[in-house]
Input
Amino acid sequence: MPPIQHHIDCHDHNLWIENLYAVNRNIIQALADKCVVLSAPDILFSKWVTSINNCQVVVTMYDDIFDDRWFDDLKVTSKKYNIKFTIITNIHYAGYNDIPEYKIQFYKELYGVFYNPAIKQTKINHNKLYTCLMQRTDFSRLSLFSNLSKNNLIDDGNVSLLGFQINNTKKSATEVVNDINSEYHLFDKIVSNYTFPFRNFVDSKNCFEIEEQSKYIIVSETYNTCEEVTPNWIAFTEKTFRSLQIPNISILLNKNGAMDVLCEMGFKIHPINKILDYMMSFNSQTNFVIGILKNDIFDEVGHAESLHNQNLLMKWYNTLQSDDFYTTISSNLHT
Output
């Protein structure tokens, strides 16, 4: 049976989704007495319900980034219907926030949903050099997969490229990969040599059980290549926080400045990520990663850093169980 196009059948993936659902429910309950309107981020401003006016609207935005056009539409709606928007999010925002139409409230504690006590801080004998799990498939991830193949590194790792795209759920993995290749014509050998969805390991109930088999974890973050439309946003998904709880070397491919944000929040990361953080293109990041894997010059790490990171996420997870956290949210709405 060929692999499916996603990892969401895994238990640890479902765990954080359940945690996030509980948090969102608590936010809704905390705002119930505030006379505010709650909205999902996929709202269509062009179809705004005109009876919603002269009020406060709260939008919860987790993990996925919206472009400037979404915010432009929000501002138009705010002015037209006299609405003050508050955006509650776990996406780090470094832009200008003194805006009449909306207020962005970033809460790092929301990352507590990714705390996973099932990840044990014990030494494991690695049987693979690296793990690289890629679900959503775009040019940058297909390029990374192609470079791993060109350098004969696929068999050295636990690797997946599942050909999934949120906006193309009706397309097969093969169609997704072919579409990317037809636009750039750089991956003909990949298209002819591999079958998609691609996964070269025995599946597990937990993604971390696959990743902890290897010395390195390569995390190609979802929004690593969106600088041109989202320059002020840095997103971290479950991939980053899962890897940081595992006692091996996490190689984190994200936008410039992302590693500084992680460190400012209190996480401990391997020093190689500081180098990656200053690289100005995904191609340079990819070439650096290939060099790391081919030369393998770094010693294995103990569990001190991963234990620290897991404890930090546990602290935030416990905060999410407290009524005080939701009281803080409800008292910081845009007025």
About this structure: DSSP finds twelve helices and eleven strands in the chain. The chain has two domains: 13-114+317-330, 116-313. The two ends are 55 Å apart (CA to CA).
